[in-house]
């Protein structure tokens, strides 16, 4: 996985929309078009296509039929990848492995999602989804509607175990918002202070609306290539990847959400021959503010300090030791699952971050989590010299 | 506010789980007798997740649903303020508890009745059954009211 030959050479993003509209297929088509232009390629230059979407609330999700819908020529690699929030990193990892094995040369990875549908708010759509069978059916019959209450339980437990408090959530949320102010693609770009945070409506204690990601309709496409002659002038080398899928059981006397992710980061760094201190930026999966705090500790990115203290000291901000979620993350930027942190890492390593650019950023950690912290994936990227 | 068909204090009947052919059918069948049954490994008796098909301890595939003590301790608890209009009939925020049962299992529950107080992590609860659309749903009753805090409290002292 450490081959410098595999690089991210194209990036395409649609507008991230807070209003219903286009289908996942239309969004994917547009993102792929932008990515190919960005990479200076035609569809005929592509011999691999990986598609992803959320498990989602609508039936017309993106699938491998996008190969024909999207106008591709004959392919050597075509898969739908689905590991919940770890999907995007798994796609890049899959593409890199295929390229290194000679099974493909240039692979388009596209993720499109359109959870916002006409006539309903996002919260309402999620509250009505989940079905009536199995464990989810029982949980919904107990009032667990949407994904917020589950993460609220996780947050309450985490705060109980670690001593973190709501001020830590507030600091994470306001710090992330501050980053969004410099990102033209962020969907929320109004300044936020502690008073504004505490005025946000409570959804499920301790999580307020502003502790939760902003779902959007949108798509991002990334071109991965082993051909050093093609692509954007600034190549982003895929230096390492790691995964960990802790198989959890819910039993009395034990934790069921924490631990089991650090190895993904350890392995990605080992592939890259890097240490945590070599990382210039971290782009983590932050569907809820509490998750970023948990992951900073889980991935051992705080030098042993409690995550809340680390964030309140400004270490994840522009002048900190590890600028984190520099585009506003999923909280204030946009929630397009694993593409949110990946796209921001590419922007930063290209030096295209504008007002939010971290000076001299050449290395990035990209994180992905899925389920209830059941899947961890990590990617180490480096701007090619 | 729209009228919703329900006899439950919290939710509309439309959220009643499917019972026939469901993985959790034994739980619902026993609940009708006010009995709490949960899955164990038929071989080594390890308490299993509700939807587990093979024991992670010994590899056996035989699941034994057995009656357990209707008591446990709160592992985590939240108060849900967002109330989806078509699904939630309660007019106030409601608790959701993640309970460690004496049997070794964990179970998500709301409270048995509309409650003025919410248990905290570590508090003991007993288990009874709400009825939602004719389906018995495990629910928690605080066993030690003196440890409870007011519903709207967000403090974590």
From TrEMBL, chain A:
Domain of life: Bacteria
Gene3D superfamilies: 3.40.47.10
Residues annotated as domain Thiolase C-terminal: 260-383
Pfam families (alphabetical): Thiolase_C_1
Protein known as: Thiolase domain-containing protein
Species assigned in the record: Nocardioides panacihumi
Lineage, opening ranks: Bacteria, Bacillati, Actinomycetota, Actinomycetes, Propionibacteriales
UniProtKB/TrEMBL annotation, chain B:
InterPro entries tied to this protein: ChsH2_C (IPR002878), NA-bd_OB-fold (IPR012340)
Any single Pfam family the record assigns to this protein: OB_ChsH2_C
Region of interest (Disordered), ranges: 138-157
Domain ChsH2 C-terminal OB-fold: residue ranges: 65-130
Protein known as: ChsH2 C-terminal OB-fold domain-containing protein
Record organism: Nocardioides panacihumi
């Amino acid at each position: 996985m450490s081959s410098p030959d595999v690089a991210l050479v194209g990036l395409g993003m649609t507008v991230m929309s807070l209003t219903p509209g286009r289908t996942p297929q239309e969004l994917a088509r547009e993102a792929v078009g932008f990515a190919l232009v960005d990479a200076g390629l035609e569809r005929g230059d592509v011999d691999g296509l990986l598609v992803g979407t959320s498990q989602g609330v609508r039936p017309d999700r993106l699938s491998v039929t996008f190969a024909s819908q999207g106008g591709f020529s004959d392919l050597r690699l075509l898969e739908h990848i689905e590991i919940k929030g770890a999907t995007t990193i798994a796609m890049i990892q899959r593409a890199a492995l295929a390229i290194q094995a000679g099974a493909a040369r240039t692979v388009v990875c596209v993720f499109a999602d359109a959870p916002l549908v006409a006539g309903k708010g996002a919260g309402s759509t999620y509250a009505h989804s989940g079905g009536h069978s199995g464990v989810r059916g029982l949980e919904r019959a107990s009032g667990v509607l949407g994904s917020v209450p589950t993460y609220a339980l996780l947050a309450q437990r985490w705060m109980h175990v670690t001593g973190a408090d709501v001020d830590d959530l507030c600091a994470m949320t306001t710090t992330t918002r501050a980053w969004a102010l410099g990102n033209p693609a962020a969907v929320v770009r109004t300044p936020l202070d502690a008073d504004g945070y505490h005025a946000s409506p409570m959804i499920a204690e301790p999580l307020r609306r502003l502790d939760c990601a902003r779902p959007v309709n949108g798509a991002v496409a990334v071109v991965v290539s082993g051909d050093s002659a093609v692509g954007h002038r600034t190549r982003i080398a895929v230096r390492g990847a790691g995964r960990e899928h802790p198989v959890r059981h819910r039993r009395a006397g034990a934790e069921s959400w924490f631990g089991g992710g650090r190895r993904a980061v350890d392995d990605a760094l080992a592939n890259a021959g890097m240490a945590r201190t070599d990382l210039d930026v971290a782009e983590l999966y932050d569907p809820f503010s509490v998750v970023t705090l948990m992951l900073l500790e889980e991935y051992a990115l705080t030098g042993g300090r409690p995550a809340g203290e680390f964030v309140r000291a400004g270490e994840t901000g522009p002048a900190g030791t590890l600028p984190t979620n520099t585009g506003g993350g999923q909280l204030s930027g946009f929630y397009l699952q694993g593409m949110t942190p990946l796209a921001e890492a590419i922007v930063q390593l290209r030096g295209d971050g504008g007002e939010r650019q971290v000076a001299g950023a050449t290395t990035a950690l990209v994180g992905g989590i899925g389920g209830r912290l059941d899947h961890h994936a990590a990617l180490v990227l480096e701007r090619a010299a | 506010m729209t009228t919703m068909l329900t006899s439950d204090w919290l939710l509309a009947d439309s959220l009643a789980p499917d019972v026939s052919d469901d993985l959790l059918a034994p739980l619902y069948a026993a609940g009708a007798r006010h009995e709490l049954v949960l899955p164990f490994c038929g071989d080594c008796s390890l308490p299993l997740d509700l939807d587990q098909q093979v024991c992670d301890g010994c590899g056996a595939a035989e699941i034994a649903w057995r009656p357990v003590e209707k008591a446990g301790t709160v592992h985590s608890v939240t108060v849900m303020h967002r109330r989806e209009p078509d699904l939630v009939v309660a007019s106030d925020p409601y608790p959701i508890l993640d309970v460690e049962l004496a049997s070794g299992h964990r179970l998500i529950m709301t409270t048995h009745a509309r409650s003025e107080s919410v248990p905290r992590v570590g508090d003991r609860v007993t288990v009874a059954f709400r009825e939602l659309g004719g389906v018995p749903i495990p629910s928690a009753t605080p066993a030690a009211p003196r440890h409870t805090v007011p519903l709207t409290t967000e403090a974590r002292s």
